[in-house]
Amino acid sequence: MISTLILIAIGAFVATMLGGLFAIKWSDKLHLVLGFSAGALMGVAFFDLLPEAIRIGQQYWTLDVVMVAMAAGFIVYMALDRVFFMHTETEETHEEHAHHVHKGRFGAGSLSVHSLLDGVAIGIAFHVSWAVGLVVAAAVLAHDFSDGINTVSMILRNGNDKRAAFRWLMVDAIAPIVGIISTFFFTIPDSYTSLVLAVFCGFFIYIGASDLLPESHHNHPTRWTTVATVLGMIVIYGVVRFAGV
Question: 139 with 10: CB under 8 angstroms?
Answer without folding.
Answer: no
